[in-house]
Fold each of these.
Amino acid sequence: ARAGAAVQLWARDPGARLPNGAMPRLPDYPLPEAVTVTDSLVMDADMILSVVPMKHFASVLKDVQTSAPVALCCKGVEPDTLRFPLDILHDARPDLNAAVLSGPNFAHEVAAGLPAAAVIAASQPGLARTLADLLGTPRFRLYDSVDITGVQLGGAAKNVIAIAAGATIGAGLGENARAALVTRGLAEISRLAGALGGQAVTMAGLAGVGDLLLTCTGGSSRNYRVGLALGQGETLEQTVAALGGVAEGVATAQALSILARRKGVAVPIIDAVTDLVEGRASLDVVMNCLLMRPAGPEIHF
Ligand SMILES: NC(=O)C1=CN([C@@H]2O[C@H](COP(=O)(O)OP(=O)(O)OC[C@H]3O[C@@H](n4cnc5c(N)ncnc54)[C@H](OP(=O)(O)O)[C@@H]3O)[C@@H](O)[C@H]2O)C=CC1
Ligand SMILES: O=C(CO)COP(=O)(O)O
């Protein structure tokens, strides 16, 4: 809307709109006048931003009627099928042009109009820039990329590393440990990006280190908060129930561990989070396993 477009916001229950004009998930931010709320999935638009969480994306997609290009904003990997968001879209709607939008973007800060940047990736030449020009504003700076694999992986994997970062702080292991863990997490993601057909260098950008910086340090991150609570000894069930929102890293961890194993890529931090959230090992055990690993050459991706 701030970029000058008339916007339709799809919601399961448009009647849930609050008296102040906001929707319940962001109750402090009344929607701009240019935004109308609808429950129709018949979408005649210049572009669609899909923000449905991974768990529900495929089922919502079945009912969408459109020929507009879709920019996917969810961050994760589907646990059973190991599909990234673009794979899910392509499987259901190979006819649609598609892009991925990712980066360090807490929703409440974007809603408040605070400055932010993100990257849009698409494989079709020119599409990412076209969408970036439609959606970008001086306070929402959009860079473009052709590395759809790297951008999707960055968004999905940072949620898993954020759980590890939160657990490190929650367990009282200190900020040095967190910095080391996030840096080595970045190395894992960079290796995996190359093995999956993306570019390791994308992880130096907004979808990689940018979102890691935000999510692994910002107390607003749901994934970080899950890790923090686990580090403080709470159960995953308690933690997720108290969260009031989705933490995609919980379901994504195991999917990334499996993908990495298939590609022969070592991802010990992602594996540690998988063991933790799947209840296979305690925090003490996974931390000790990480600390006992032999250290080798630093750069090997
Ligand atoms: N929040 C953020 O700062 C950011 C989030 N993302 C990504 O965006 C995605 C969505 O996250 P976010 O909006 O924060 O999650 P929330 O947990 O805050 O909201 C979940 C949303 O999903 C909707 N929903 C729940 N169940 C269904 C269903 N069965 N079918 C369709 N919709 C459903 C909810 O609708 P209802 O309100 O009706 O319950 C709600 O709008 C995630 O992949 C996340 O990683 C990416 C960048 C930033
Ligand atoms: O992706 C996000 C910010 O870029 C939101 O992070 P959380 O899902 O951990 O809250």
Amino acid sequence: MTKHYDYDVIVIGSGPSGRRAAVQASKFGRSVLVVDRRGKVGGVSVHTGTIPSKTLRETVLNLTGWRERGIYGMNYRVKQNIDAQDLNMRLGKTLDDEVEVLEHQFLRNGVSVEYGSAKFVDAHTIEIENPAGGSRRVSGKAIVVAVGSAPHRPHNIPFDGTRVIDSDGMVNLDRIPRSLTVVGAGVIGIEYATIFSALDVRVTIIDQREHILDFIDREIVDDFIHQLRDQSVNFRLGGALESIVIEAGQPVAILEDGRRVRSDLLLYTGGRQGATGDLNLAAAGLEADERGRLDVDPITFQTKTPNIYATGDVIGFPALASTSMEQGRIAACHACEQPVPPAPKFFPYGIYSVPEISIVGITEEEARKKKIPYEAGVARFRETSRGQIMAETQGFLKIIVCLKTHKLLGVHIVGEAATELIHIGQAVLNFGGSFEYFIEATFNYPTFAEAYKSAALDVWNRITPRHAGKGEPPAISPESSAPQRMKTESH
Ligand SMILES: Cc1cc2nc3c(=O)[nH]c(=O)nc-3n(C[C@H](O)[C@H](O)[C@H](O)COP(=O)(O)OP(=O)(O)OC[C@H]3O[C@@H](n4cnc5c(N)ncnc54)[C@H](O)[C@@H]3O)c2cc1C
Ligand SMILES: NC(=O)c1ccc[n+]([C@@H]2O[C@H](COP(=O)([O-])OP(=O)(O)OC[C@H]3O[C@@H](n4cnc5c(N)ncnc54)[C@H](O)[C@@H]3O)[C@@H](O)[C@H]2O)c1
């Protein structure tokens, strides 16, 4: 006899992965319940993470006139006195709009939403404690754990919500500090550090590591750090934090080697951990690792209890809104016994710092480590007409190309629109294209995208022997030899 459940799919968490899982399952005609304890849909992504930080960035760039400073000088400002209210106004509107879009999406797709904190009773049943103190039990044939993550808060950090805060505390600041210390130079720390530096706040970045952003191509990071130093950002790298004390009302970060950094506000961004603490995982036959993360099958996103799936930040790397959404969709397909779409080989990484960084594919360092013969081509944004128009003096784009097959291996960008531009490279990579595509293709003019063509020509110039009187690259036809070689060789 088939067992009856209240819902075909229960999703715990309404962030990017939970939302995608819920909508996908409902598109397959399944009954779906989403449970979230926040009281509003959207998850960390909408309320404290991706959307607030990116809205803050956009507000700061607009109000400071950052993008125009190349033309009008570093003292140029659109609004002279920018205060916390200026920053929060746009934030409130954006978040409200996001929530409305999500609520409407759930409604249109017949997804039920219930607010309350969920915990397992057994592998098919959860108990939902609602904010008023009551509770009820519901059962689901499949359960998707999409509870996300929360800032890691070590006991020795004196968080007080005003002088020492984590990234959740950056939403709705009641004042703009004159100086900011950021402890932890991961993506979150770097994004906020550079956004506040663009506001002319004096920023110091502390990290125990000697090298920051070690998954990014070194040349990009070196250029990025150079630009930040030029903006007067201070770095205290290679020294772990020993303690934080409050002196004369200001937080002072004391490093193991004795260095001290005093500021108005200290932001601690030393990593995140899976929000599994309240789930009573043992009742469902599950346990989390020391960072609260769940282990899953990388193809189906099933946990070791097969009807329970886990997606998004709760499974750890890469912990992005973008990848979380795809994980949610795949888990829903599997839970609804539909074909599971394979995840594309390459996904981009976007760091919304000032300036932006975005990457897809492998770095030069990885190419060397894997002993892949490669060549790199670089194009500076200032060499494009768009760069001239926008007075973009700094950004550049770099492509990595396999010397044997001419296939594109990686794209690395620092500068304006990097997080948008990267998708051109991503498409070529996922379709297994060669760098000659960029030479042959016609791009809109004037655009930053032309930098792909210049970088490809840079590669061409480096790998093609020069003959007297033949300085220009020949027109490369679709029948030219490089794409032919691609079919038989592997990179
Ligand atoms: C400051 C910051 C900036 C970021 N910027 C970017 C970016 O630019 N690009 C990008 O791709 N990613 C970014 N990220 C990462 C991105 O926000 C996360 O990868 C994404 O939100 C993870 O989605 P998720 O589906 O795991 O759920 P989350 O968005 O983490 O949401 C989980 C939800 O589950 C709910 N929940 C938890 N436990 C329970 C329970 N027991 N019962 C009921 N509900 C529960 C929570 O209330 C929450 O609403 C950023 C993150 C931060 C913190
Ligand atoms: N644009 C984006 O895609 C984006 C933006 C923000 C966050 N995220 C995601 O959020 C996740 C978490 O980011 P995060 O930056 O909090 O964590 P992280 O783990 O990436 O970085 C933490 C950093 O803090 C340092 N650190 C930790 N403890 C320290 C101490 N006591 N003293 C000095 N340094 C210390 C570590 O060396 C590390 O460099 C990332 O995995 C990322 O994928 C993505």
